[in-house]
Amino acid sequence: MLYDALIIGKGPAGLSCAVYTIRANLKTLVVGQNKSALLKADRIENYYGFKEPLSGRELLDAGESQCRRLGVEFVEDEVIDIQKEDHFKVICTGAVYEARTVLLATGSPPVKAPIKRLEQFEGKGISYCTTCDGFFYRNKKVGVLGFTDYAVHEAAELIPFTRDVTLYTNGMPLDLTEKSQQMLKSFKVNSSKIKELAGDDVLSGLTFEDGSTESLQGLFVAFGSASSTSFALKLGIAMEGRSIKVNDKMETNIPGLYAAGDCTGIFKQVSVAVGQGALASRQMVEAVRRMKTAVS
What we know:
This protein is α/β, with parallel strands linked by helices. The protein contains seven helices and 17 strands. The strands form four sheets. Strands 1, 2, 3, 4, 5, 6 and 17 form a seven-stranded mixed β-sheet that branches. Helix 1 runs parallel beside helix 7. It is globular, with a radius of gyration of 20 Å.
């Protein structure tokens, strides 16, 4: 099935966009998990239209209910990759979805893995993109730092380049779907907690809390869930620091791909995210209508 608009993230920006795209008769799918930072907000008093304060969860539930009433489809899943062919392919742990346009509304980038010297070796053995840098580690010993389906997906992406791949969970228990658990046989798993990275000018290995060490030539970070930054690196989306670069229409440098909300590095307020979602929807509607006119 080909969707007109696929929205990644079910926070204020994503839900706002979905309200507009579905009302414009675009077949709309929202993919996300209940991980919005707004869920941690106990009281919201600075958003227009409410007589009394409400919680972040109440606001999100109301937005999702509105979208469902209008006909928006929802999938509770984790997006682990996005590819661009004739259309966008959004790869999740449970299925693959295709869409004419995509909105990234994934919130702020996650906090980096708490490991000493990680930033020191970025670009010198530390990478955040298997698609970008896997080629440079052909037949070398490499690792992936993570414990979720996203990390397993990234480890599998390295197998065509090298068979010597280890998944390092840094002491975290594996949190995987059955499909990802079956993929574990393709590489090694080390669950020891990492003390720090080793090396002089470039990464040479890992030192663990128990005093043991392991040599390593490359380490790909996929800690937690895939973020807007992860997708940007793979697709070649222009960035400003760790935020996605958009114009005043919420367009990225990839045609058909838009971004809204905290992942754009804006003033982190519900009202701003809602407004950006609405702006993005207008462009998505116009883009889809142009595509359909071109083939009719």
